[in-house]
Design brief:
alpha+beta; single chain; DNA damage; Heat Shock Protein 90; 18 helices; formyl-coa transferase, domain 3; 4 domains; Ribosomal Protein S5, domain 2; six-stranded mixed sheet; hydrolase; endonuclease activity
């Protein structure tokens, strides 16, 4: 008996579904692309239970007759590709002819379609890849794809689906991608009977971006005018540097109407900002690239997310030069709205707050005498520590008639603050050699123990007189809502404000954040990166506090002024020598080690 045999059609389609249908969002992608290829001017997507129960895509495209409706269920059946020459110049969103039969093989599938000049339509019912019923139906012109109980006959695939909110977020993101790529098409999305968004068709891409990214982003958009070179053209919009995000989730690139991901284009965007964006952040952008289809190969990725340019260096240079020309006037970062006040977590009373300089401690008295021969005296009374951890002995150089005088601030490890190194590290003289202090790591430890080491009711919250409104995509909002209790415990009061908008009503008083929006967005980025594929689960508060402290320390400035106070705060911590994730706060280089370098 031969060992090799041809797979049955249904099984072959289920195997193909493993590449085409990763999750409900994959189904939506394929169906929406078919609608756009059919010339639809209106596309409606409806899901239930994250798409596991129902996915329904309705369009007003060209529709199909009975023969075509049945043929589209056959593998490798397509109207978009006729010969091999067309494969090198694809002009349609889809072309392989595998999506519909693959989806029908792993679901309870219904196809209803009617051509515009036909009197009646056709309805086809498919159960797990087997056609059960074909009948005449009265329908509006266009096509309806209805997918129920996705992966009902492939339980191994179904159990790997994430929480409903996570799958819904992926579907919403996919629909928004195509809505951005095709602003001239109306897109509507409904979830569990509720309208998530209804975006009317518009010739203005800025209007479509504002409808998806929110009004704040829409007002700050910087236009990238049409720039042509090398037989291709690019245009679009970018946001100022302060809107940069971790990862590339806020970069949207469309090639001939197709959403794509390309690291070279992302690199060009980053380079165009010329250092205005930190190394671990990426600018937000929406770019539309048009080129001859023969200059790009779109048949290199199962989901068609990645493409291969025949002139990649030219594409990168075109994007780089276009964005560089667009970025001409720097935008000032947003300031804190309203005067801060303290909201007691126990009583709920609002208490006005007098802003304190970062170097102020429990009690500081500074006496300055005008006589040039007199010294400047500082008397610092550091509050009693919570633990028995050793306190730093800080020697501060004070000028008096060209002499250095050491002023004792506390007891414990003996340090003399010398200077800063490249505005990144503080240089300290220890009892036996040189000590380097990382201010960011120190602040991270201080903030972490301020949250994790305190009773929840003792954490004070700084209320905003004018709440901050932040527009989030579905993924980010999902992370916030699953960690809502952690936000509240940390003194960050956030509430949904309708759609994808989040309202920030208060911030932790200990942070003194000047820009609540920037801080909350950076914290969300940190959480998204940490949670990864487990977005349906909230983090333990200790882990949440660790991520919060990391973001709070990001803007810590390395400066000689206030170093004594930073050291005093650090050595009040239970574990002053490392960050919450184990990185060192101080590094000691002994005299012997230094001497060996010179031997």
């Amino acid at each position: 008996m031969p060992k090799i045999s041809i797979l049955p059609d249904v099984l072959a389609s289920q195997v193909a579904a493993g590449e085409v249908v990763e999750r409900p969002a994959s189904v939506v992608k394929e169906m929406v692309e078919n609608a756009l290829d059919a010339g639809a001017r209106s596309v409606e997507v409806e899901i239930q239970k994250g798409g596991a129960s129902l996915i329904k895509v309705t369009d007003d495209g060209s529709g199909m007759g009975k023969e075509d409706a049945l043929m589209c269920l056959e593998r490798h059946a397509t109207s978009k590709l006729k010969d091999a020459k067309q494969l090198s110049a694809i002009t349609t969103m889809g072309f392989r002819g595998e999506a519909v039969p693959s989806i029908a093989s792993v679901s309870k599938f219904r196809l209803a379609t009617r051509e515009h000049d036909a009197v009646e339509g056709t309805e086809v019912i498919v159960d797990g890849g087997i056609v059960k019923e074909v009948k005449v139906a009265g329908l509006q012109a266009g096509t309806v794809f209805e997918v129920r109980q996705l992966f009902f006959n492939v339980p191994a695939r179904r159990k790997f689906m994430r929480a409903e909110s996570t799958e819904s977020a992926h579907v919403e993101h996919q629909v928004k991608l195509h809505a951005l790529a095709w602003p001239e098409v109306r897109f509507t999305m409904r979830k569990d009977g509720r309208t998530v968004f209804d975006l009317p068709s518009t010739p203005d891409k800025r209007t479509r971006i504002s409808g998806i990214a929110g009004g704040e982003a829409g007002r700050k958009l910087i236009e990238v005018p049409v720039k042509e070179a090398y037989g291709m053209a690019v245009h679009g919009y970018v946001l100022p540097a302060e809107f940069a995000r971790k990862g590339r989730r806020q970069q949207f690139v469309f090639l001939n109407g197709r959403p794509i991901e390309d690291p070279a284009i992302s690199r060009a965007l980053k380079d165009a900002f010329k250092g205005a964006v930190a190394d671990n952040l990426n600018p937000s952008a929406w770019l539309w690239i048009e080129m001859d289809p023969s200059l790009v190969d779109v048949n290199v990725h199962p989901a068609k997310k990645e493409v291969r340019f025949h002139k990649p260096l030219e594409v990168r240079q075109l994007v780089l030069s276009a964005v560089e020309e667009a970025i001409s006037v720097p935008v000032e970062p947003a300031a804190l709205r309203g005067a801060p006040k303290i909201i007691s977590r126990k009583t709920g009373d609002a208490i006005p707050v007098r802003p304190k300089p970062s170097e102020e401690v429990s009690r500081a008295v500074v006496e300055v005498r005008n006589e040039p021969a007199e010294e400047v005296k500082k008397v610092v009374d550091v509050k009693k520590p919570r633990t028995e951890a050793p306190k730093p002995f800080v020697r501060t150089p004070v000028v008096k008639q060209q002499e250095l005088v050491e002023v004792e601030k506390s007891v414990g490890p003996q340090f003399t603050i010398l200077s800063t190194l490249h505005d990144r590290y503080l240089l300290l003289q220890g009892e036996d050699g040189l000590v380097l202090l990382d201010p960011k790591a120190a602040r991270e430890r201080i903030v972490y123990e301020g949250f994790a080491g305190e009773d929840v009711d003792d954490i004070e919250s700084q209320g905003l007189l004018v709440p901050e409104l932040i527009d989030l995509d579905a993924h980010d909002l999902d992370v916030v809502m699953t960690n809502l209790e952690n936000f509240t415990e940390a003194g960050i009061r956030v509430e949904p404000f309708g759609g994808g908008t989040l309202q920030v009503r208060s911030m932790p008083a200990v942070l003194s954040a000047k820009d609540p929006r920037a801080f909350v967005m950076s914290l969300i980025d940190e959480l998204v990166e940490t949670v990864g594929g487990k977005r349906g689960k909230s983090l333990a508060f200790e882990v949440f506090a660790e991520k919060l402290a990391k973001r709070a320390a990001w803007n810590e400035v390395c400066q000689r002024k206030g170093a004594e106070h930073l050291l005093a705060q650090l050595f009040e911590c239970d574990l002053p020598y490392c960050t919450p994730d184990g990185r060192p706060t101080l590094v000691h280089i002994s005299l012997k080690e230094i001497e060996r370098k010179f031997s």
